Amino acid sequence: MTCEIFRVKVKDQRSSTRLTAIRVATDTEQIGEEVGTSLRGQRDQLIRTRDRLQDADVELTRAGRLISAIRYNVISNKMFLIFIIIIECAILIALCYLKFIR
């Protein structure tokens, strides 16, 4: 009888161990699915962020070209104004020379 009880206890322990292993495997699988879902969501978010950054980079490049064009126009306008001022000064000097010295 004691051998029979021992065998039953061993079978119960094996069954219990199997059930525990099945529970652990099920829990692990569920956790794995949750992690996979979370990682897919994070991947999608990273892809959207990358796309937005690429769009921002394109816009910054375009803005940089626009600023360079504006800078070129400002410099050329200043040079033109300096040239006009020099011509006006030359005309003024010529008029003073003609009026007062002659």
TrEMBL record:
<dbReference type="GO" id="GO:0031201">
    <property type="term" value="C:SNARE complex"/>
</dbReference>
<dbReference type="GO" id="GO:0031902">
    <property type="term" value="C:late endosome membrane"/>
</dbReference>
<dbReference type="GO" id="GO:0006896">
    <property type="term" value="P:Golgi to vacuole transport"/>
</dbReference>
<dbReference type="GO" id="GO:0005789">
    <property type="term" value="C:endoplasmic reticulum membrane"/>
</dbReference>
<dbReference type="GO" id="GO:0042147">
    <property type="term" value="P:retrograde transport, endosome to Golgi"/>
</dbReference>
<dbReference type="GO" id="GO:0005484">
    <property type="term" value="F:SNAP receptor activity"/>
</dbReference>
<dbReference type="GO" id="GO:0005829">
    <property type="term" value="C:cytosol"/>
</dbReference>
<dbReference type="GO" id="GO:1903076">
    <property type="term" value="P:regulation of protein localization to plasma membrane"/>
</dbReference>
<dbReference type="Pfam" id="PF12352">
    <property type="entry name" value="V-SNARE_C"/>
</dbReference>
<keyword id="KW-0472">Membrane</keyword>
<keyword id="KW-0813">Transport</keyword>
<dbReference type="GO" id="GO:0005794">
    <property type="term" value="C:Golgi apparatus"/>
</dbReference>
<dbReference type="GO" id="GO:0000149">
    <property type="term" value="F:SNARE binding"/>
</dbReference>
<keyword id="KW-0812">Transmembrane</keyword>
<keyword id="KW-0653">Protein transport</keyword>
<dbReference type="GO" id="GO:0006891">
    <property type="term" value="P:intra-Golgi vesicle-mediated transport"/>
</dbReference>
<dbReference type="GO" id="GO:0048280">
    <property type="term" value="P:vesicle fusion with Golgi apparatus"/>
</dbReference>
<dbReference type="GO" id="GO:0012507">
    <property type="term" value="C:ER to Golgi transport vesicle membrane"/>
</dbReference>
<keyword id="KW-1133">Transmembrane helix</keyword>
<dbReference type="GO" id="GO:0015031">
    <property type="term" value="P:protein transport"/>
</dbReference>
<feature type="transmembrane region" description="Helical">
    <location>
        <begin position="80"/>
        <end position="100"/>
    </location>
</feature>
<protein>
    <submittedName>
        <fullName>Vesicle transport through interaction with t-SNAREs homolog 1A-like</fullName>
    </submittedName>
</protein>
<dbReference type="GO" id="GO:0016236">
    <property type="term" value="P:macroautophagy"/>
</dbReference>
